[in-house]
Amino acid sequence: MKVLVVGANGQVGKHLVKKIQDTEGLQAKAMIRKEEQASYFKDLGAEPVVVDLEGTPDEITKATEGVDAVVFTAGSGPNTGPDKTMLIDLDGAVKTIEAAKSAGVKRYVMISSFDTTREAIQEAPSSFSPYVAAKHYADDWLRRTDLDYTIIHPGMLTNDEGTGQIEAAEKVERGEIPREDVASAILASLQQESTIGKEFQIVGGSKSVHDAVKDL
Amino acid sequence: MKVLVVGANGQVGKHLVKKIQDTEGLQAKAMIRKEEQASYFKDLGAEPVVVDLEGTPDEITKATEGVDAVVFTAGSGPNTGPDKTMLIDLDGAVKTIEAAKSAGVKRYVMISSFDTTREAIQEAPSSFSPYVAAKHYADDWLRRTDLDYTIIHPGMLTNDEGTGQIEAAEKVERGEIPREDVASAILASLQQESTIGKEFQIVGGSKSVHDAVKDL
């Protein structure tokens, strides 16, 4: 299975590409924005592809052709300018969803925000709510497709080393999770078809990632 | 017919409320953000209602109850911060669309941007493209409802006095249009049921607003 990792150069993305390359039968195509980011992924044996999420649908579709799954883990994040929130977190995500449809790729794993409900938009601090709204509409767009999607809602991301232990459910208590464990949960979702059509929150916990995802 | 004007305190909104109040059989409910904006609308005989578009769906639905049509002419505009582009031009618009549905109001007139296609997002200058994207997704949301909608795509807005003459068609040459004439085109759309389910661009032209809208 070949997996297009959108946002490969992000912190979750880098963990994910490495884990994919370390997994028998999986191969990563790393979508990156700049040529100079390519060598890191080549060294891992992954295939880099340089495409800007602000680029045209055609460019993004071309990068998507020939893969078996798309993982969207790009993110301007809440700390970039809100112009990028619109163009990357929402519009960029939508373009990759449409690219998956155009390229005939059924499997799509979206890394969302912890809570992207209407209530979460309303309740978020004003600096954060545009980001929540962007993720809300991107998730909504994906749900309305007939793609084999999974939407993962991670808690607060940390750079701690992964523990391999998480809690996963439709609703969990708000908490932290190392980016490396988010990458593991993505990998487990790609490997377990039972996650198709599901969405769930993840935080640090006490179950192995594999079991936590299996038990959803 | 009672018309909720969302963004009544904007420049198009002010013209529109006045024109509605000057029209036999029409009455405006002016949705405004601040109490101190109310007296202008009271003086026109319109009913002001103070609601923030960043407010809850319940607040917006409550303001929508009892009217016969909603006009969305709010707009952070391309010159406000992009955080407001997300929360007003997209999310605020969506909330008013959902409010119309909840309140059982079928008629909805959206004032969009001149070109909100995918191509327009891609081709816009980078400072403008978040705004185009916001309007793209708001228009898309509206099209997917079963509301009796009309989407008006005005050319470059000016503060010139209205001429009462416009050009209107699915596609017209890019050009300017006085805000007052946009308000007249909204009024004509509200009065002509033939505009339901249609969307069109408008610029300054040589037909009376009534005829231009009738001939769509």
From TrEMBL, chains A, B:
It holds the Pfam family NAD_binding_10. Residues 7-192 form the NAD(P)-binding domain. This is Sugar epimerase YhfK. InterPro entries: NAD(P)-bd_dom, NAD(P)-bd_dom_sf. The gene is yhfK.
